[in-house]
């Protein structure tokens, strides 16, 4: 089946061809897993989110109209699937914190690894992790985030500030530990 173009593969998936669905999964699962990993609490939850995302992709593939990139479309479906899971868990119904100061986080690449940074992000409370990822990593505006998560723009801003504050503290604590260990 490797001789099929992406559009042919999509058409076969629209016809519920399970071999085509398997090939599409093989083609995009690693990219979408990294998206799921960003938004999940841990590796196992990311795997669950990836499976849910593919079920949604195959369920909604009829809606893809070949406008814009397919990869962009499946990434949006994946993000929305993961966010829906957290909306259903009511993680965004929590308090409105009015922290709006902009906190800068200085990361020196030689001091911390990407894996460490990802683990720090994964440990953030759900509402902070979601807003941080949507804003800082995926470039959504606070207005877009507010609509996606069904929260206010102010809550989005304060959740981002709180996420940055927690990340900054965690990174600083790690740097202090590293400095003590190197003495």
From TrEMBL:
<comment type="similarity">
    <text>Belongs to the sigma-70 factor family. ECF subfamily.</text>
</comment>
<dbReference type="InterPro" id="IPR014284">
    <property type="entry name" value="RNA_pol_sigma-70_dom"/>
</dbReference>
<dbReference type="GO" id="GO:0006352">
    <property type="term" value="P:DNA-templated transcription initiation"/>
</dbReference>
<dbReference type="Pfam" id="PF04542">
    <property type="entry name" value="Sigma70_r2"/>
</dbReference>
<dbReference type="InterPro" id="IPR036388">
    <property type="entry name" value="WH-like_DNA-bd_sf"/>
</dbReference>
<dbReference type="InterPro" id="IPR039425">
    <property type="entry name" value="RNA_pol_sigma-70-like"/>
</dbReference>
<dbReference type="InterPro" id="IPR013249">
    <property type="entry name" value="RNA_pol_sigma70_r4_t2"/>
</dbReference>
<dbReference type="InterPro" id="IPR013324">
    <property type="entry name" value="RNA_pol_sigma_r3/r4-like"/>
</dbReference>
<dbReference type="InterPro" id="IPR007627">
    <property type="entry name" value="RNA_pol_sigma70_r2"/>
</dbReference>
<feature type="domain" description="RNA polymerase sigma-70 region 2">
    <location>
        <begin position="24"/>
        <end position="90"/>
    </location>
</feature>
<keyword id="KW-0805">Transcription regulation</keyword>
<keyword id="KW-0731">Sigma factor</keyword>
<dbReference type="GO" id="GO:0003677">
    <property type="term" value="F:DNA binding"/>
</dbReference>
<protein>
    <submittedName>
        <fullName>RNA polymerase sigma-70 factor, ECF subfamily</fullName>
    </submittedName>
</protein>
<feature type="domain" description="RNA polymerase sigma factor 70 region 4 type 2">
    <location>
        <begin position="117"/>
        <end position="165"/>
    </location>
</feature>
<dbReference type="InterPro" id="IPR013325">
    <property type="entry name" value="RNA_pol_sigma_r2"/>
</dbReference>
<keyword id="KW-0804">Transcription</keyword>
<dbReference type="Pfam" id="PF08281">
    <property type="entry name" value="Sigma70_r4_2"/>
</dbReference>
<dbReference type="GO" id="GO:0016987">
    <property type="term" value="F:sigma factor activity"/>
</dbReference>
